[in-house]
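Revision sheet: structure tokens.
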Amino acid sequence: MSAQTQAPANLAAAVQSTLDTLGGHGETRRDFLKIMGVSAGAATLVTVGTTLPTEKAEAFAYEPYPTDDELTTVVTSCAHNCGSRHVLVAHKKGDVIVRLSTDDGRYQQGGVFGKDTEQEPQLRACLRGRSYRSRLYSPERLLYPMVRVGKRGEGKFKRVSWDEALDQVARKMVELRTKYGPTALLDQSYAGASYGVLHKSDQIEGLLGRFLGMFGCRTNSWSVPSYQATTFSSNITFGTIHDGNEDDTYAHSKLIIMWGWNPAYTFHGGNTFYYMRLAKQRGCKFVLVDPQYTDSAGVYDAWWIPIKPNTDAAMMAGMAHHIFSNNLQDQEFIDEFCQGMDAGTMPDEFKDKENFKDYILGKYDNTPKTPEWAEKICGVKADDIRKLADMYARTKPAALKASWAPGRNSYGEQYNRMAAALQAMTGNIGKLGGCAEGVGKGWHSESVAYPYDENANLWWASIKSDRWAHCVLNYPNVKREEIGCWPRDDELDGKIPNIKGIFWQGSDWFNQLTNINKEIQAIDKLELVVCMDSTITPSGIWADVLLPIATHFERHDTALPWYKGHYYIHRPKVIEPLGESKTDFQVFTELAYRLEQLEPERLKDFGKKYNPRASREYFQKNDEVDEAYLIAWWNDRVRGHQNVKMSWEEFKKTGTYKFKLDKPHIAFREQIEEGEAFETPSGKIEILSTELVNIKDWTRTKYGYEIPYIPKWVEPFESLNHEKAKTYPFHLVSPHPRHRTHSIFNNIPWLRETYEQEVTVNASDAKKLGIQTGDTVEVWNDRGKCVVPVYVTERVLPGVAVLFEGAWMDLDANGVDRAGNPDFLTLDAPSPAGAFAYNTVLVDIRKTDLEHRPGWDRLATARSHVFRRDD
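Predicted:
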């Protein structure tokens, strides 16, 4: 065979060789195509005019795709706090997952292909979960223990053994506790990468909290970034965060008001969109109150009411005024179930205090909260406020879904409390098709399989999560109210924690908390930063020790629905852990034994107490122990407490268990229909809060600063109504994107091909700024700056900019973020009830020559590039 005819075979060999080479490095597919483009062109030149023999190819660039009969199918689920946890079906060849599919009706008890009913709909995974194979095998996958060898944030690490890494962590833990006391280590676990009934990263029920508590050194992070204002509101109004109906009840609504809610992107019940589609088919009307016209508004043909960010409580007050003034309230409901709604529902001891109705009508401050008053604040026409109030008061049943996003601002709890007052005054609580959300936690799951005992949530200080940097930078000259210091009943009450180390378990909080600029200043004052994750995240780049954690495909567990959804999904070990990955439970168990050796008297039997079913060999072999915990949980909690008849073995075989409720789960049905008391001090829905009205010294509370005891409009730190808007004329909001769960999935090339980080602005604003879709702009204020492409549309209110949260930070030499992370612009100042002011941000925007760096694999198919202008 001539040299000419051998060229293609040589090329194929070169392709395979190049692929093998790239497999061990961080080069991208684009780099590969650049390399092969030259070779392919050269091959074309030498083969012109040559007739090639037909023979079986000897080499392929890729393996032939395996057929279904060559694959093993395993039912599992996703694992992240994206709003739900759906079925993932892993198709594997050997120990490699080659494809992921989702529920098709066969993976429920009695399931058959195509089964999809209103009572038992399919639990179909979204695009994020379906892309998980790309995350599992990504170049950013953390496979070995690593320790920092460069400066913090420089990203220089060396591989070490597990013994070296854990010895370093254990010795430093003992040193810090001995030197600085029981508040030296900050717990910043969250539900990002390890969430199940056994392998659980969580602020309250998590493995890290129990581990640090038993060790005797823990400062807790008490506030939840997503919905702390909402949690506060639900707890003081209803006495619980279990204020959510299951989402099948939406199918019975006649009106659904999506207040700051975009269920096309963030759904909480697993099948939210399914039931809302049923509602639409049955004649339900939809309304969206939001600064931007979302995909959900388009899908449900909603009436869009654009509103200035952070002014929601004012608009709701205007609605309440119209309802009271026209006697549209459900007075019978108010009289029976509410405290403080009006003069007639005020307890004797509070007769001299403000009630909600008189506040709305202006009796106390001579300022009636009329729709005209509200219009000046929120920018919504008074006639539209009246129209919506009338629709809501007259339509039965109606669901005002007060989403979390508008509460992510300064004094965000007032929006949620105002929404609860509207829900109560219209009598839509405890009713099928109504709504009391709020937090929206629905059906009660049995959520813990590991040892959960008196050691589960010990702490010696507890501060608001995003105030740790302020505490570290200013220690000891910090007032307790500045950091939301939780009160205690001992000598540590009010004592400022001396934080010297952080554990990030299942959380990328360094990338996600407010005001990253301050975190960067503070982190160099720490002596130990440990990041436990399956992926090298932006937080990991700033750590001292990286510990590789097995993904949910590589350990045995059971998936819980998240906040809503009455089902469990078996989550078997699908493949063996990649590299030297271990589970969180393995790591904490082994650390407990090492700490016991370092402090044998104080920590006697620490390892056995932490993991009572295991010996120290658990670090090497955990399968049998994990299943023993899960079997006990299933038999004692699920079958015992919840009367499930299905055996553990049958559950493993079937893959899912879906509860068939005898009637729709409606929050507070028992209180409204059967006369049970609410879990508040008064036993009623507390529009006037008994707790708040009785507080005398606010500095000795976790709130720090005064909170009105009835819902009120309170000016936010920053807004388009402030003088500061003359300098920074855009109000920035940072909602959740469709293609990420916070920062999770940011590095998935499949998703980046379709979506890109970009700032959305109104066309009229773009014209004034002289920018067009695809231009690169700076978004900045007095706190920081980020660089990002712009997308121009009519689907956002003028004066508002939208920049999705969760982009992985990428700093230049001047501290400018090139990736477009909005948390370089956010403020970490304390909002009393604990709200994170993610959406209380004023900025300016201008075209720039600064570089935008969206990530390691940029493919130019996102909107801002597809519609890039030709010139």
